[in-house]
Each structure stands twice: as structure tokens, then as C-alpha cells.
Automatic annotation (TrEMBL):
InterPro entries: Heat_shock_Hsp33, Heat_shock_Hsp33_C, Heat_shock_Hsp33_N, Hsp33_helix_hairpin_bin_dom_sf. This is Hsp33 family molecular chaperone HslO. The keyword Nucleotide-binding does not apply. CDD domains: Hsp33. It comes from Acetobacter thailandicus.
Length: 317
């Protein structure tokens, strides 16, 4: 017997991939510095290759994945962290989000003709060349019980790193240092992030060095700047070793690594629920000649097909 759509929990053909040590949190003892190293590994390739974009667009998406993974890992409660960029460039919309448990997803809307035109003029476009002018929003959503926190700034800067740094400069109290990379390597697409946050230097945490908190922060960012993209994206270089190379003389303390995973949970059942909220009239409008309704999950880039006759509107009152 055929499973009715509303019971069909089957997920599309997407990998149930979990990368156990995707995020490595750390802090520098006695210094006002904490940070996260993000290495999604093969998960980046799996997610990015589900979508057929120019490499320049894929690179931007990959960096967005790393940065939301880094920022979400600082969430203290259940919830998600999302980045949205809306601009007037060839990439008109970029959405990436990550839950506190490390479930990652993204989608990017690009005008492929406009991207091609840009690339013919400028083979290596900046992130800004792709997004154009517009805004960048970061949203923390910790469930219906709490207030959603959203900050919005204009797109400012050449790279996604600059855009996010601009956000932190204008809307947050503490300084933040960010490095983001995404490249097509021999092993496939890889992305990574190194983020340092400056903690408020009160409360006597400054105990172990003769340097001032400013000196300690500056030293940490100078050391972090020596990290090469090739090191950040190298699967063969374990996170601990990479962090040790940079910060071994700075009181490095490594925390419990956290997992990252393929984050979309779309299923026929979930989409059926959505369809049932439409009126019969709307459902009839969505239907094509063959009485099929097609719903596409933009995150997974997968289309689900439903028989119109299997969907009954619950909006009948
Ligand atoms: Zn999906």
C-alpha cells in the first residue's frame, strides 16, 4: 500500500553526514581572547555541489557556511543563527544558517547570466562584486519563548569577511577578528573559518602576562593573520595542531569539539503540512496540467511532487 503523503517521513536523497569535530572552540588563558576554528571538511563539498553555480558564487556560499557555523557555536541555548545578504548584484540573495547543534544549510539566488557577464569582465570577482549594494542581516532565533534578535547593516567592504567585520564593528560591543576561506581543492570543495572574539577585559582575567589586554589581543590577531588558506583548508592538518602552531605560546586552551551536519530536514510529510495550510483555490492554482503540485526545497535543491488529489486543504472554515 502506498504511504499517504502526510505520513511519508522519507527524506530526499541527501546525505546524513555528520562531521564530529567540525568546530573547535578555544581560548587563550589569561588573555581576553576566545575563538573558534571551523573545518566542515567533506560536508562543505557535499553541500556546495548540490547546487550548480559558478565557482565564484560557490566560494561565497562556502564562506557563508563557515561563518554561520562559527557564530552559531557561541549560542548558549537551543536555537539557530542565520546570515542573510540581499543585494542588487548578480547574487541577489544569500541565506545560510546553523543551529546550536551544528545543523547547517544555505541557499543562494544568483542570476547566472549576470554572473557570466561579470566573470568575463573580472575573472576573479570580489564578494562585493557578486552581492552589490544592499544589506546584511544576522539573526539569532532561540525559539518561540524568546525574542528574536536581529541586526542589520549595509553591505560594506570587499569581502564577506569585511562585511561581517563591519557588522560587528557597528552593532556589537566586542571586537571580532575573522578569517574565511573556501576553495576547490584536490579533495573537493573545502571551507574554513578562524574567528577570534575579544572578551570584556574586566573581572581580573588578565593574570598571566605582563602585556596589557590590548597587547594580548593584538598579538593574537597578528598570530592568527599568519594562517594561510592552504592550512585552514587542509584535511591532513588536525585542528589541534593548527591551533597549536598559531597560539602555543599564548596560553592556548582547547575546548570540546562540536559536530557539524547536513542541516536541512525537509521531508514529504513536512511539505504536505505546508500545502494543507493553503486553501483549495490556492492549491488548484499551484497545480499543473497533470494535476501535480511541485514544491522545491531551495536548501537541498530537490523537487517534491504531490498529486493534487492527495492534498486536502485544512483551511475550510
Ligand atoms: Zn531540504
Amino acid at each position: 500500500m502506498k504511504t499517504p503523503a502526510f505520513l511519508d517521513r522519507q527524506r530526499p536523497d541527501v546525505p546524513d553526514l555528520v562531521v564530529p569535530g567540525g568546530v573547535t572552540p578555544f581560548y587563550l588563558q589569561g588573555r581576553p581572547v576566545r575563538g573558534r576554528l571551523v573545518r566542515p571538511g567533506v560536508l562543505a563539498d557535499v553541500m556546495l555541489t548540490r547546487h550548480d553555480h559558478h565557482a565564484a558564487v560557490t566560494r561565497l556560499a562556502g564562506k557563508a557556511l563557515s561563518v554561520v557555523a562559527a557564530l552559531a557555536s557561541a549560542l548558549k541555548f537551543q536555537g539557530s543563527f542565520s546570515l542573510q545578504i540581499k543585494g542588487n548584484g548578480p547574487v541577489s540573495l544569500l541565506v545560510a544558517d546553523c543551529t546550536n547543534t551544528g545543523a547547517l544549510r544555505f541557499y543562494i539566488r544568483a542570476d547566472e547570466e549576470a554572473v557570466t557577464a561579470l566573470l568575463s569582465e573580472k575573472p576573479e570577482p570580489s564578494d562585493y562584486d557578486l552581492t552589490g549594494d544592499g544589506y546584511l542581516a544576522l539573526t539569532i532565533d532561540q525559539g518561540p519563548e524568546t525574542e528574536r534578535h536581529q541586526g542589520i547593516v549595509d553591505i560594506s567592504g570587499d569581502s564577506l569577511t569585511d562585511m561581517i567585520s563591519h557588522y560587528f564593528k557597528t552593532s556589537e560591543q566586542h571586537a571580532c577578528w575573522i578569517s574565511l576561506h573556501c576553495e576547490l581543492t584536490d579533495a573537493g570543495w573545502r571551507t574554513g573559518a578562524l574567528i577570534l572574539e575579544r572578551l570584556a577585559d574586566d573581572g581580573g582575567i588578565h593574570i598571566e602576562t605582563d602585556d596589557t589586554p590590548d597587547d594580548s589581543w593584538n598579538t593574537a590577531t597578528i598570530l592568527a593573520s599568519t594562517l594561510k588558506a592552504s592550512e585552514l583548508l587542509d584535511d591532513a592538518l588536525p585542528p589541534r595542531e593548527l591551533l597549536f602552531r598559531l597560539f602555543h605560546a599564548e596560553g592556548l586552551q582547547i575546548g570540546q569539539p562540536r559536530a557539524l551536519a547536513y542541516g536541512c530536514r525537509c521531508s514529504r510529510a513536512r511539505l504536505t503540512e505546508i500545502l494543507q495550510n493553503f486553501s483549495d483555490d490556492d492549491l488548484d492554482h499551484m497545480m499543473l496540467d497533470d494535476r501535480l503540485i511541485t514544491m522545491t526545497c531551495e536548501f537541498c535543491n530537490i523537487s517534491f511532487h504531490f498529486q493534487r488529489d492527495d492534498i486536502s486543504s485544512e483551511d475550510n472554515d
